[in-house]
Amino acid sequence: MSRIPLRHGIFLPPFHPMEENPTACLDRDLELMCYLDKLGFHEAWIGEHHSAGWEIISSPELFIAVAAERTRHIRFGTGVISLPYHNPLMVANRIIQLDHMTKGRIMFGAGPGLLASDALMLGIDPDTQRDRMAEALDVILRFFNGEYVTEKTDWYTYVNARAHLPPYTKPYPEVAVVSSVTPSGGRLAGKYDLSMICVAATNPFGYDALAANWQIANDIAAKQGRKMDPARLRLVGPMHIAETREKAYENVRFGLARYIDYLNNNQLRYNIPAGVDPAQWFVDNKFGVIGTPDDAIALIERLYAKQGDFGVMLQQAHNWADFEQTKRSFELYARYVMPHFSGDNRARAESFDWCTDHRDQLTEKRASAAKLMFDKHAAESGQG
User: Backbone phi, then psi, for 343, in 5-degree steps?
Assistant: First the structure.
């Protein structure tokens, strides 16, 4: 069991098949945020994409502004803003504004941009994206700290520039960088003391890189006399759970194959042999969970065994099942998986077990107390 209280959330790209009404899809995503808030999920990270058809949120900040108004407790992160696509000062100002509008419920997730098709539309060489992200992140953190910046690069120029407002959160909102297989996220997290989101934690390649990338972050932090905080490490993996494995497999026939087709259309990730059930292949190759709450618990414990302590388990939202069964999956997770790791039911279980161990004694005392009452009544009524 982790020494760090495990928090729970989702990572919402989102994934929506192209035959569906996009307005209704966005409405459902917002409804899901409200439902997760009600269930007690701690955070939701919202993606940014501009091409490839399925991932239809182009501005996580706009989505978060609406979602924050409809919810009470859940925190929202940009998952992520693709920094090479934006002027860094504009990003800093938008995040600071959201920080004020949400009264500190915003987290800033930054990345280089995942879809090469996004970069190519903007005339950006994908080979430059990670370097531009590092440049942008550095200057955004300086804006967050209230610095004046005069700086010229090959893609932005500042002359005595600064953020118009200081952040609502002091010194500034939590900042996270994404990490998958390459060491770039770990290097930035260690250099700037940032949170880290491992977006491919259950993918076999990302799983193998987990400990290595976290170690990179720790090694770089150590050179600066700091230590990385595992409570700010987030692991992402896809799950769909139901009351039985059979029901979970039945549910995901709705959308799992289309999800795999979309991901392979952008970049070949899943090479499923002909005639093989995609759900069974997905589970057998340990890409995620299709099963029961116990299977979700087993996956998280496997991540602990590989990674050690971490702070947040983020489910990748994927729409494998229809909306009602998707909500049911999150409900079962909240009912059975969350308390397994929080220990909220430990005292109840101990109390129940104590009663079991002392049942004969408790039965005797209840019988004795009842007899005393009957004897007292008989004596006072003259029947004794």
Answer: 75, 15
Q: Report pTM.
A: 0.95
Q: Which residues contact 102 (CB under 8 A, 6 or more apart)?
A: 64, 65, 68, 76
Contact 155, 83 (CB under 8 A): no
**Taking the domains of the chain in order of start, what are their residue ranges?**
7-347, 351-380
Domain 7-347 coded CATH 3.20.20.30: yes
How do beta strands 175-179 and 195-198 pair? Answer: parallel
Q: Determine the Cα–Cα distance for residues 376 and 384; give it in Å rounded to an integer.
A: 9
Give 268-303 pLDDT, tens digit per residue.
Answer: 889 999 999 999 999 999 999 999 999 999 999 999
What is the spatial distance between Cα 275 and Cα 278, in angstroms, rounded to a whole number?
Answer: 9
- pLDDT tens profile 155-190: 999 999 999 999 999 999 999 999 887 888 999 999
- Cα 217 to the center of its chain, rounded Å: 20
CA-closest candidate to residue 342, choices 306, 312, 298? 312
